[in-house]
Amino acid sequence: MNIAVLGADATAREVAAACVRAGERVNLHAGEVTAVMDSIDTVERRLGTDGIEASDRIEGTTGLDAAVADADIVVDTTRSDAAALQDRFAELEEEIAEETLVASAVPAVSVTSAAAGLRRPGRAVGFRFHQPPEPFVEVVLAEQTEAVAADRASQFAERVATDWIAVRDTPGNVSARLALSLEVVAVRMVDEGVADVTAVDTAFEHLYQGEIGPLERADRLGLDQRHEALRSLAERLGPRFEPPPLLTALVEADKTGLDAGEGFYVWEGETPQHSALADPTAPEDHRDLTG
What we know:
The termini are far apart.
């Protein structure tokens, strides 16, 4: 397959890497040459560590028509709201073949709403790529997605991922809802003094055989991003996704996790050193209150 990936952000690189790893040809598009080349270099380095030569399978361009001309599937990672994605889909429809699928890889955007602007809305789908510990893809089926498009999207997911599932186009994909729900419970346990940060993560790792716990994962993804994702879901799905007060306080204090050097953990490089919060189970005079 020929896959056009529109964007040069982390999601675009993740999609491009998964496709190249599976042997697909990728044309990556962005508005600036530097962004295109930097993303291609990142993908090639990432795959190179696994012994995969990517240079003959990925190329880049700043021209949208050149990026999508021969594409079997076009995956957009740049439009984060339905109105903007609808405009993007309509723009693409003028450039692509009748059988080409158009897709979004942005979790929060409604493919159903965006597809409403297409002459052939049945070609629209969504993909949600998840890498660690193994490539996993959610195929998002819009209300208008036709059976042929759904089958082709599923075949693509089977080629680029270890496993995949089909889901309806609803607020928050399956993986996001599960992960955020776990994070909310974990944060509330710390906030209520049930256990400290490392204890909660250790329990999760043992019980669910996870590589990292929900609090470390939230730190790595960015507490500001997790807070915004929860706030967005709460608006659409109700108060069960309301950000916990402790998470809000950390974000307001700019303690947003790995990138900031501190969140639930204190970080050195890519490695968490210790909890940044006091241990609620320790005797009062032994608690580290320095944060």
